[in-house]
Amino acid sequence: MRLPVLFILLTVMIDAMGVGLIIPVMPALIQDVTGGHLANAALWGGLLSTVFAIMQFGFGPVMGNLSDRFGRRPILLVTLAVMAADYAVMAVAGSIWLLLAGRIVGGITAATQSTATAYMADIAEPGKKAQNFGLVGAAFGIGFVIGPLMGGLLGELGTRAPFWAAAALAAGNCVLGFFVLRETVTDDIRRPFEWRRANPLGAFRALSRLPGIGRGLTVFFLYQVAFFVYPAVWAFFGEARFGWDPRMIGISLALFGIMMAIVQGGLIRLILARLGERGTVVYGLVFDIFAFGAIAMVTSGTVALILTPMAALGAVITPALQGLMSQTVGPTRQGELQGALASVGAVAMIVSPLLMTGIFAHFTAPGAAPYFPGAPFLLSAGLIVLALAVFLAPARRRPAP
């Protein structure tokens, strides 16, 4: 693998690890700095997660547009350096307010997936952008797996150890990028930075005027809300339905993440070659409808462990959809598109946990009738049905001028 591509994939992986890495130690850490009880720590933990996602939402388009103006290389290197410093500060933070400030900065620096994805679009051969986006998705999946596992393991050494590890990873990758990353933004495709395009809503408005982009963003949002049911409620679902302990929950999430990496890093090439990008999106959506429905209804932990990695076979939707939209916007707006997609994903990360945990709590509370821990997954299946309907709906014909 070429070193610049390795750097990009490591950057995406570290971004994906940003939340999961500290989840295992967050309760003990917050109680340590606040002196409060677990319930109070949970409230602070929710606030920290929400702030992180809001920063990603707000700064995804900013990073993408800055990279269209100043280049991918400086944006990626500067944010990695700041990320490393931010984790180091959080490792020694003695107050909840410093942790909150750290999560604000961390959300901003982790908003560079748009820039990383734009870099992969820049270097892609004609017609092969979706394959490159698949590699990005695979790196995200690996980070999704490694983050919680590494956080739990390092947590045995103390609540601060995961932060030092994250700082070392970000700093090491920054050094690698300094030596191997070449700039891909040339004067031919460089464009001025405009705040109206850099704010999330402005980016949506500008892109939605292009044929097919508004529909694509809607499908992407619905899919992301449905997909985030896994990090939102999987641990609670596993315990309520199967009596799983944290070890089994970790194994199941690892199986899912590994299969998602395999699908987006390799199998997607075969599926794209056979079905094309549009057909791949349809296949992924149909597959996920049945996958979410099956997980919602399963009552055997063994069957669930089999279904969990199989469910990742539908993880071809994001790269294929990105490929379709990337072809529409042209080379001068790749950063803007990826920034808008990053913000859509961040909004889904804000909405989905609140929605999915609320549904889960309603159907698992004492005296709930019916008692149905799988309700959030059934809701996800319904959202995918809606996404499929939007994707397949006939395009409106514009009136003749």
Q: SSE layout and pairings?
A:
Layout: H1 3-20, H2 26-34, H3 38-70, H4 72-92, H5 96-109, H6 113-123, H7 129-154, H8 161-180, H9 195-198, H10 200-208, H11 213-227, H12 229-242, H13 246-297, H14 301-311, H15 317-329, H16 334-364, H17 375-392
Pick out its properties.
0% strand, 401 residues, mainly alpha, Growth Hormone, Chain: A, 17 helices
- The CATH topology is given as Growth Hormone, Chain: A
Q: Please identify the oligomeric state.
A: single chain
Number of strands: 0
CATH architectural group? Up-down Bundle
Q: What shape does the CA trace take? A: globular
Question: How far apart are the termini?
Answer: 50 Å
The CATH class turns out to be: Mainly Alpha
Q: Low-confidence segments, ≥5 residues, pLDDT <50?
A: none
What does this structure look like?
The structure is a single chain. This protein is mainly α. It has one domain: MFS general substrate transporter like domains (Growth Hormone, Chain: A, Up-down Bundle), CATH 1.20.1250.20. The N and C termini lie far apart (50 Å).
Question: Concise description?
Answer:
The protein has 401 residues and is mainly alpha-helical. It has helices at residues 3-20, 26-34, 38-70, 72-92, 96-109, 113-123, 129-154, 161-180, 195-198, 200-208, 213-227, 229-242, 246-297, 301-311, 317-329, 334-364, 375-392.
